[in-house]
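Input record (Table S2, row 500):
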Amino acid sequence: MENKVVAPAENGLMKKIVSHAKEYGFVFPSSEIYDGLQAVYDYGQMGVELKNNIKTVWYKAMTQLNDNIVGIDAAIFMHPLTWKASGHIDGFSDPMIDNKDSKKRYRADVLVEERAAQMEAAGKKDEADALVKKLARLLEADDLKGVQDLITNEKITCPISGTANWTEVRQFNLMFSTQVGSVAEDASTIYLRPETAQGIFVNFLNVQKTGRMKIPFGIAQIGKAFRNEIVARQFTFRMREFEQMEMQFFIRPGTEMEWYKKWKETRLNWHKALGIPAEKLRFHDHEKLAHYANAAVDIEFEFPFGFKEMEGIHSRTDFDLGNHQELSKKKQQYFDNDIDEATGKPYGNYVPYVVETSVGADRCFLAVLCNAYTEEVTGEGESQKERVYLKLHPTLAPIKAAILPITKKDGLPEKAMEIYNELKYDIKVTYEDKDSIGKRYTRNDLIGTPFCIAVDHQTLEDNTVTIRHRDSMEQERVAISELRLKIRKETSWRTILEKV
Ligand code: ATP
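Output record (adenosine-5'-triphosphate complex):
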């Protein structure tokens, strides 16, 4: 029997989320008027707010909750030797395979993994596990012929052409390169960084010295990264230009397992604090450890297309700093004057070990969006209605409150504008007076606004307004003077940070 690999993007719920994201200004295909560019997306007016909120809450959780973690913002272009030291020039590749009929390119390992997922879904967990293990062994041994045989033996076919007419499996480097230099002869090849981490490693001593940092300490960074991904689909899950939020934690060798454990827990808590339920998150230990790592785990989220990696936590030993030291011929050492109880002497000079946490801002955005997308039936009998809304954590919502005069006359718009002008300094609010109040509530539900503030005739008499809550649709009467504090309390960074 020939099984077809089902393209996960065909999943119905995912389709709805992608079109919702476009229709309400969250995510647009890049350069859409030219039919878009595969695996590149633009964030729209709502998306940029949501994504910025996610980035802010990550940055604060790192640099504000920990007095030994500081931030940097390194350049995207780096000296080419950086990528030699990091191993990306020689080893940052994926095994790829082309289907000769459809001319489509696939990641060979992903084709096999998807087959394993199908087996698991069909109740054949043992067979699926055995397949994944076999794949891991072949990849470890760099046995590309073996991977190809696996694809043939499993009778895996192309989802587009339906045939098994494959090329051989080849390695494909994922780094984008370009030229710098004013004249062609002087030009030299540089790369668009495939991860932000190296910008942190090469600044390790700059930060340590100028910030007088004592080990253990961390450096956090948010920035763009670029990978020429072979399998470019699943919306913002796998993009060619994306954003990472990475933190490298520099520690004394021998203490890595303790810190690895701590960061594993802390990072899981962060995702839960964003409102993602525990049952949609899980740890996934790496089958195959990268050559530099002595422990590695992914935090996976249950996307509509299955549990997939959202964040990686890696114990990277002294691999990166050690290699930079060797290639740059500049010592990357730290003098630790704490006393080693075993010897009674200071620990002295060493190249620190590193535990890193690395999460994609776009994958996290997608997880938050998928989790928030809610379809609900309200009312009964004839008045039964379907409602779609985004159940976003109020602190992450693009707009915190919409100020809505119930009519456009009798001085209500002026009063509503007064409230808007008072709140706008502290809170992201909007003012809207077009269409019926019901339509405006619906529009705000669709973008996840947690509070709608209705200004009516009673407001003119007693300076109170109605707050309509997004999730429960319940309404309460509140004095205008209490609004600012009330909304700020429910949308403050603290609501998330205190749960991390
Ligand atoms: P995958 O196996 O899915 O390709 P990875 O293991 O190569 O991911 P890492 O190198 O560990 O990913 O990168 C850290 C994080 O950066 C990932 O957990 C993910 O959130 C994000 N990331 C990596 N590649 C992409 C991409 N192409 N698009 C969006 N986010 C990405």
